Amino acid sequence: MPRADNLLSLGLGERDRLNKELGGGIPRGSIVLIEGDYGAGKSAISQRFSYGLVEEGASVTLMSTELTVRGFIDQMHSLEYDVVKPLLNEELLFLHADFDSGGAFSDDDGERKELLKRLMNADAMWRSDVVFLDTFDAIFRNDPTFEALVRKNEERQAALEIISFFREIISQGKVVVLTVDPSAVDDDAIGPFRSIADVFIQLEMIEVGNDIRRQINVKRFAGMGEQVGDTIGFSVRSGTGIVIESRSVA
């Protein structure tokens, strides 16, 4: 069992049981993959992780392909996660990946940029203890270099190049968290990330009568602390944030 100081606590023990359900935190030096269809709660879980980590003293970078800075602050405010102070203190760095209406990441001349290359060269974003890329599939789907490899059926090669960069980052004890919508990307592209993820979580929505229930399915958790729940029910509530509903046995 790893030492507690090798785990980055997700905090908020007084508010929800998420950190306890996930064994006391995320192991340093790990790649975390969070998969889920649209609406399953990927962004909400990323936001909860981010806020809890910052509250526990970790530095965090969160890049979103969907939210602007204003949208992020409003969203966090609605969940009662007050991020204004961490943003001002530079404990939390929020970045918006601004795709144009055609889904391309462009500069002022409208030229498509190699987003993944730019990300890898953006030293400031990788200085944090934990870096979230939400949603990661949108980033590589809209990268022209990756697209060119996909056209040649070389998705796996493209993924492996990105993975080698992530491995270099986590060798410094940092954590990289990727959120992915599996319905938006080919299995050949996402497969390598599933294989190498130290922590692999699938978010699922289940219809129960007229209700939609969300759950966290823990598929892999290398370097876990205490026992980690296989299946953790949760909801996202305005004014409250993430609420752990129950632990059930799948």
Automatic annotation (TrEMBL):
<feature type="domain" description="AAA+ ATPase">
    <location>
        <begin position="28"/>
        <end position="203"/>
    </location>
</feature>
<dbReference type="GO" id="GO:0005524">
    <property type="term" value="F:ATP binding"/>
</dbReference>
<keyword id="KW-0547">Nucleotide-binding</keyword>
<keyword id="KW-0067">ATP-binding</keyword>
<protein>
    <submittedName>
        <fullName>ATPase domain-containing protein</fullName>
    </submittedName>
</protein>
<dbReference type="InterPro" id="IPR027417">
    <property type="entry name" value="P-loop_NTPase"/>
</dbReference>
<dbReference type="Pfam" id="PF06745">
    <property type="entry name" value="ATPase"/>
</dbReference>
<dbReference type="InterPro" id="IPR014774">
    <property type="entry name" value="KaiC-like_dom"/>
</dbReference>
<dbReference type="InterPro" id="IPR003593">
    <property type="entry name" value="AAA+_ATPase"/>
</dbReference>
